[in-house]
Design a protein that fits this description.
This protein is of the alpha/beta class. The protein is 30% helix and 24% strand. It contains 17 helices and 26 strands. Helix 7 crosses helix 9. Bound molecules: adenosine monophosphate and 2,3-dihydroxy-benzoic acid.
Amino acid sequence: MTRPLTLTGVVPYPPAAAARYRAAGYWTDETLDDLLRSAVADAPGATAVVDAVRTLSYAELDDWVTRVACGLRARGLGRGDRVVVQLPNRAELVVVLFALFRLGAVPVLALPAHRRSEIEHFSRHTRAVAIVTCATHAGFDHAALATEVAALVPGLRVVLAEDLPEADGDVPPGAADASDVAFLQLSGGSTGRPKLIPRTHADYLYSVRESARICGLTDRSVLLAVLPAVHNFPMSSPGFLGVVHARGTLVLSADASPAATFRLVAEHGVTIVPAVPPLLLSWLNSPDRPAADLSSLELVQVGGAPLARTVAARVQPELGCRLQQVFGMAEGLVCYTRDDDDEQTVLTTQGRPISADDEVLVVDDDDRPVPPGAPGHLLVRGPYTIRGYYREPEHDARAFTVDGFYRTGDVVVARGDGALTVVGRAKDQINRGGEKIAPQEVEEHLLTHPAVHDVSVVAEPDEVLGERVLAYVVARGGHAEPRPVELRRHLAARGLATYKVPDVFRLVVALPGTGVGKVDRTRLAAAGESTW
Ligand code: AMP
Ligand code: DBH
């Protein structure tokens, strides 16, 4: 008999669908803890993780994971407890995640760039019992942030990576069931606060195993994570979990500069690296590239945001390896171009879904299917796509159809063979080089400034980032005009993640209306010249 889901507020897969996914062999009894345990049993001496200061074999990683799991257990952590994890790319991140999986606890995957606004929200919304973070990173005092949030959220304890609790002992397998929620992943969201995504061990591991197979991972694979490793892409497409599945090596870098990346590729014989388009561009255009030894690289994966065809075409000639386009979402669906695809397909599509049981619909505004080759809204349902966000029933009513299809908000063209090309976006979201930003969240923060009467936050095209964040601001009568530097300071003081802070502010006299009390974003460009 399976134990009940340990989390409330999670929309389960319908029993008939779950039975089908199990019968098809997609969902197994394996948990993320089992994943590590079987890698250790198979390849104890193989190198599992390399970061700036250490190299760990699978056996060493597993020992450390057990010690930390015992230490955390001694502090009262156990099955189903939510724990916010905010760590940069270093070995402790992997150790803490697997230690929490070992206990059946549920990590909440925050990004290093998140600040008080996000961390406090995650902590409250999940009723987290602990936050694991580091002292400082990239000049920011994460320990102080965690302490500040802990003072606001009852019961939240702070654990620092520099001082991880460790204890002797053992943790028997089986703390979690495969049908349990394994962790809460982050979505950029399109309204209000960021949404949390409950992924189960079984559904996530299915996507990891298939991703590892599609991407050709083996025990000789060396994957470099320069993107924050808890992003769904470097975590599971095939990401560091795919590496563990294949008994390969994960190289973690907290330095995303081209020079550091090239050095790590040469030093560790990196074979595969996931990137967002601006990161890829930084490598292609780096003065250090011609001299770099990138001969070990087999595959550069690019996803998270649209990749220009001209940039895609430079990968093979300039980096000397294959390109794979990846179109994925933390909610589930992941598409890949395959190694036997023709060049056109690799350069111009974002590939096809992982699973034969990914049900993809491309529909018009009334949810009626459009003919193949015509653009439409992408809806998806399948063995690793969620049926609802964590504790967001109102949002779910809009984000999912009554049949449980997730409305991705992406506008795509589907080819007869299933290959998808992303041609636009219907959701109110800004994709800043792969970082997703909900304009409404930024607007709500800006509106709290006393000199701001009204505001509209939109995407502005940017050559490197694809899109950047532009805020149109209407000043409030009787107040001194708010200056960009002051508005930036205000957003920082409110604890908004830095990547969400508008790149550009434009002061306008009024925002054009749609006539229904909403701002007409399409007419904003004509709203008048900025006085700044
Ligand atoms: P999230 O739901 O926050 O995980 O973000 C996923 C979204 O990122 C998708 O719905 C797309 O809008 C966008 N995205 C991811 N990969 C690509 C890609 N290769 N091309 C274009 N957009 C992408
Ligand atoms: O953007 C994403 O969220 C994304 C991109 C590529 C993703 O979640 C993934 C691959 O798994």
